[in-house]
Automatic annotation (TrEMBL):
Family classification: Belongs to the HIBADH-related family.
Keywords, ordered alphabetically: NAD, Oxidoreductase
Domain of life according to the entry: Bacteria
Family matches, as InterPro entries: 6-PGluconate_DH-like_C_sf (IPR008927), 6PGD_dom2 (IPR013328), 6PGDH_NADP-bd (IPR006115), HIBADH-like_NADP-bd (IPR029154), HIBADH-related (IPR015815), NAD(P)-bd_dom_sf (IPR036291), Tartro_sem_red (IPR006398)
Name under which the protein is recorded: 2-hydroxy-3-oxopropionate reductase
An annotated Gene Ontology molecular function: 2-hydroxy-3-oxopropionate reductase activity
Its EC number(s): 1.1.1.60
Enzyme class per UniProt: oxidoreductase
Keyword DNA repair: no
Pfam families in the record: NAD_binding_11, NAD_binding_2
Residue span, 6-phosphogluconate dehydrogenase NADP-binding domain: 6-165
Domain 3-hydroxyisobutyrate dehydrogenase-like NAD-binding per the UniProt entry, residue ranges: 168-287
Natural source organism: Streptomyces yangpuensis
Length: 296
């Protein structure tokens, strides 16, 4: 155990808490910091160490893993006198698993290198269930040597782990992932409303659809959400709204047209504007129901 790298974990939310716990189960020493005391208590109860600040968490760490909501939070925890770059030791490796703009990742890697700190961007797909089960898909941007160093740690968190290219590439692939997921959820939501209004047995219909070409990980993961109208957040509409902004902006910058994605981005935005931002992204079903005349 003493030969394993010491890990600092910053950001213990819906995804971060179970991921940090999986590293503890794998034998790693994890010191964590987040803004919510109950999350720090949860980490300590699982065998980790709660820190009182970012600086305290990262000062002795070999590897620093960050999992926060968006680019402004990544910048806030990394920069400034109390941030990671000023308090981590030279030679440390930052694994940023947040979903942010590719440019934020590129800039972080450049600024960290000036202090002798290595960075890879490693956003994930799989939601809360994937985090709990340690079966996340992890898309990585950065140098091959840093990817190789991080791989044993990432293998305790996910199943499909791929180096996609230089810094920012992981975020670009994650943006594409979020585009596909949002469009897929929207299609499933429309199918659910169509099936119900047609008087079909919804459970049977979704089972048979998921066994054919229409089947998907999205439908497997979200089928019960649709059937039970259970929109407890595994991945919030607010966060998917942020991600759709990332992908539409990045696509515009490279000259890629996203006609269907743009429509779904607006549907996500409208759902958020109607007060559903804190619900799971499967709540796109609520938007389709409203458009179809239901009072929800």
């Amino acid at each position: 155990m003493s030969n394993l790298p010491k890990i600092a974990w910053i950001g213990l939310g819906i995804m971060g808490s179970p991921m940090a716990e999986n590293l503890l189960k794998a034998g790693y020493s994890v010191t964590g910091f987040t803004l919510e005391q109950d999350k720090l208590d949860r980490l300590a109860a699982a065998g980790g160490t709660a820190a009182g600040s970012i600086a305290e968490a990262v000062k002795d760490a070999d590897v620093i893993i960050t999992m926060v909501p968006a680019s402004p939070q990544v910048e806030a925890i990394n920069y400034g006198p109390e941030g990671i770059l000023e308090n981590a030791r030279s030679g440390a490796l930052i694994i940023d698993m947040s979903s942010i703009t590719p440019q934020t990742s590129v800039d972080l890697a450049k600024n960290a290198a000036e202090k002798g700190i290595r960075v890879i961007d490693a956003p994930v797909s799989g939601g809360e269930a994937g985090a709990i089960e340690a079966v996340l898909s992890i898309m990585v941007g950065g140098e091959q040597a840093d990817f190789d160093a991080a791989l044993p740690i990432l293998e305790a968190l996910g199943k499909v782990i791929v180096l996609c290219g230089p810094h920012g590439s992981g975020q670009t692939v994650k943006a594409a992932n979020q585009l596909i997921v949002a469009v897929n959820i929207q299609a499933c939501a429309e199918a659910v409303v169509f099936l119900e209004k047609s008087g079909v047995n919804l459970t049977a219909a979704l089972d048979v659809l998921n066994g054919g070409l229409a089947g998907s990980t999205v439908l497997t993961r979200k089928k019960d959400n649709f059937l039970n109208r259970d929109f407890k957040p595994g991945f919030r509409i607010d966060l998917h709204h942020k991600d759709m902004g990332i992908v539409t902006d990045a696509a515009r910058n490279v000259g890629a047209a996203l006609p269907v994605g743009a429509v779904v981005a607006q549907l996500v935005a409208s759902l958020r504007a109607q007060g559903d931002g804190g619900l799971d992204h499967s709540a796109l079903l609520r938007a389709v129901e409203r458009l179809s005349g239901a009072q929800v």
